Amino acid sequence: MEAASLPAALELAAGGGAGLSPEKRAVLGASLLLLQRDYRFERVWFWGCIQGVRGAYYIAEGLGPDRAAPRSRLYSLNCVEWSLLPPATEEMVAQAEQLKGRFQGDPSFEYEHIEINAEDAERLFEDGKEPTIKEEARLVATIEQIDRAVGIIPRGAFVKTPLGSVHENRNFEGLSLTEAKKLSSYFHFTEPFNLKNKTLLEKADLDPSTDFLDSLEHDIPQGSWTVHLEKGDTVVVLRSLLWLGLTFYHVPMTKQYGYVYFGTGEKNFDLPFML
Amino acid sequence: ERAHGPYQPHEPGYGLHQPGHSPYDDQIPDPKSRMLAIQNAKAYLLKSSTTSGLNLYDHLANMLTKILDEQPTNAVDIIENISKDVKWAQFQKKMDTLRDEHEILPTFEAAEKRKALFLKENGEGDEELEEEIGETPLPNVMETAFYFEQAGIGLSKDESYHIFLALKKLISVQPIQTCRFWGKILGLDMNYIIAEVQYHEGEEEEETEEEEVIEEGGKRRAEVEDEDEEKEEEDEPPKSTYKPPPVIPKEENGTGANKYVYFVCNEPGKPWVKLPPVTPAQIVCARKIKKFFTGRLDAPVVSFPPFPGNEANYLRAQIARISAGTHISPIGFYQLAEEEGDEEEEGGGGRDTYEENPDFQPLSVVEMVDSLSTWVHHVQNILKQGRCVWLNPFQKSEEEEEDEEEEKAEEPDELQQEIGPPLLTPLSEDEGIQNIPAWTAQPSTNLIPQYAVAILQSNRWPGAYAFASGKKFDNIYFGWGHKYSPENHTPALPLPVQAEYPSGPEITETRDPTLEEELAFKAAKEEALAAAEEEDDEEDVEDDEEEDD
Questions:
Q1: Is the CB of B186 less than 8 angstroms away from the CB of A78?
Q2: CA of B376 vs chain A CAs: smallest distance (Å)
Q3: Residue A65: inside a domain
Q4: What is the ipTM of this complex?
Q5: Closest Cα in chain A to B153
Q6: Does one domain contain both A17 and A72?
Q7: Which tens digits make up the pLDDT trace of B325-338?
Q8: How many domains does chain A have?
Q9: Which UniProt keywords are listed (chain A) (predicted)?
Q10: How far does the CA of residue B157 sit from the closest CA of chain A (Å)?
């Protein structure tokens, strides 16, 4: 969610019982602005909070001029001091996927006994170390996974310019109530996978400036998103069942939207059994 | 040389490279030809489009008017969008010939319902007001919400207030002694808001009457069926000898897992629905399945092992499990009530009543957070059987303890009596999951420790929270209603296939006799036959001889 609209947004996304204490809210207002100044971000998003066993990580993302470029991610344990996270690599993501269980809450904690490729194993054994992965890397990989899988925006909120960069659409006035209830009005804000697989008929209806991302319609398994109208049908709230804790809110016919994650940072592998 | 004469103002190429003429020659123009050019250009712009009936002149005029009125930044970058908007507005106007019906959005109905919560019921006099201000079972939801908010837990203030009013409505309708906002469980289509309630004593008898009526109706139906069966004299397929394990009866209302009654509603403003009491079979099954709630109480729960009930029962079972696992209080707040009776008569069930300790001295927040032994469970643990008090299903209902001991020796199935931790056990006894402790304790703020609140989060039931601050404490649940398990959920495997029939000698296959055995058997048979014939012949001969005489 946008740092500028944080207080209002937290009220709208609080249906699941998770939020921030007044202390954190107050300090975020100031520290996110300072982040914007220090790192020269154009936009700062408060991404959410991952609960560890002994502490919690608060995550912020910074965007540059091209909103679709890889975002810089920062974490903090107390919302005051922020540290930049390294960019996520495929290797990190692959290793982190094998880890199970909660986050510990300590960024330097090392997980042991992970399996990696034979080549890497040989390399590491030469050094005499057992394969370990630090919690910081797991954090980076988890945030990347969540963003890739369930980071969503409403259709039309971003436009792609002919030069290829992505900007906010100044003409976006919000989805209408009927549109807001449909899953096809929301896109994954990440590299599209299925766009090329659409039939020619479907492609003909697409507007290349706004429809350049995958919609939620074809997410597997079907039903992995719940769509609720809350606060007397004035806010549309989407919750992901694959990553429990991801909440997306949008007030129809206004420009307010955003998503935030409050959870333990674990994928819900039992989803097919639970539906 | 050019064959073309001097260029006229309206011809393309006018003013360009012309020997003897420079582009600036027409600054002192021939007024007539210039006016003609302007008129031609304007006439071209005013030409209506054959497809849409618009013309470029009007469109450009509208667009520029709009731009000048609104003065957007970087107008040149969004000029196409502005043009599209202006065209769109054109089309809208044409529809004005039809009367616009005021759109009745569904939001309006929802707003009506919410407004109804805020209206005071009519007919209240001053007496009612006094009653309200006196002791009321209504909990102070906003106060609890404030404490939880210090930890970042809780719903938005609007929603909390709506729930507050909805609880007030519940209390005015039902005869309730104590009431508490238990929490919110999220679902696929709708969510559940849950209130934990205790009736006044004596108000619950209505339910048991209903249940008896249902049972009698069932008996009558069973009798009718028996009669029908007797009439049929045909051969029936063999009846199965499967005896299902005995059904463990549910606990009485007001005790054990059914100590509290729960009401749910989907949204504040909608009517409250009472959840049925929970049976041990439901709890046992709920432990094996993991399903999302849909939000409709009558939805079936499709699972394996098949859940005995619908979503209302599953919800009630999960609420019972969550309450038993995560409802905690600071040590010393509750104390065990003094019992007059003999402990032996309870059959080892343990004490299940507690009362508030009038001499409670609250511990400091630092102490509450540092050690888990300063918190205790005040809800009875649910045993594996599904009840809080263990019941041997094989015993007859009116047995005394002495008879029980004798019979236990005789029964083939010996069920071990299950014992759980007694009431008011401290949290330090709670097992963690792998290397994660069962609870995470934190103060709400490190910056202002004087006014911090101790917050506990459960790791076994993610979403269960408890706070304590001085003499105040409370528990709450916000979540999807499932237990945490680091391993993936493995559904129960189906039972092994039952033996269809007992295998005895009459149906066991025997080996077919070989050729030699058959021949030998045949030969033996023939010998016996021949021997028998000889005897017959002799008898016949004797008979004949007798007849002759």
A1: no
A2: 20
A3: yes
A4: 0.88
A5: A18
A6: yes
A7: 888 888 888 877 66
A8: 3
A9: Cell projection, Cilium, Cilium biogenesis/degradation, Cytoplasm, Cytoskeleton, Flagellum
A10: 8
